[in-house]
Amino acid sequence: MIEVENISKVYRDGEIKFRALDQISFEIKTGEFIAIMGPSGSGKSTLMHILGALDTPTSGTYRLDGRDISTLNDDELADIRRNKIGFVFQSFNLLPRATVLRNVMLPLVYQGVRGEERERRAGAALAAAGLDRAHFHHLSNQLSGGQIQRVAIARALVNDPTLILADEPTGNLDSKTGEIVLGTFKKLNAAHGRTIILITHEREVAEYASRIISIKDGAIVGDEKR
Fold this sequence. Notes:
This protein is α/β, with parallel strands linked by helices. The protein has helices at about 45-50, 75-85, 100-110, 115-130, 145-155, 175-190, 205, and strands at about 1-15, 15-30, 35, 60-65, 65-70, 85-90, 165, 195-200, 210-215, 220-225.
């Protein structure tokens, strides 16, 4: 699914150059659950932005489902983000005065999907993310942190993306709630075969994945299967 070959990212500020990524290479197969782990400043956020088609590398090649993402223009990158990647962030980014169902349906509204089909697909995504149907018509600000994050996971699933990219998804949650959310990702991977990349700085979070890629100072320093 993912081929990253000799990816480098260099930022310039006048005469000063900072190499955030240095010749990164790895592959991810369809259906894998991967954690990319590293401390602050390691380059993992830069790598996440490239994998999420939010940025392009300075050099090297990134292929998603056989397509060279490194060569695409802004409109083509936006299309990739909309149709192939589901994002789950540390901040939930939900509309507080909209119902759970409405929040999950919103991406489908922008795509022109009709009302009944929108509701069906949103309900299926919420069920897959482990949210009880009794909460579907609650406002998002009436839910617990763990429930809100599962709504955000459902929103990421609703377009049936090839890849789920989760950036520090438990960062705003207590440890017990975080375990529930991480268990949701594990179930999505095991039961539904979703390809998931989890970005984290915590070893105990990374250990929910079946493979951990460790990054430090812009380079891969470990790649272990569990």
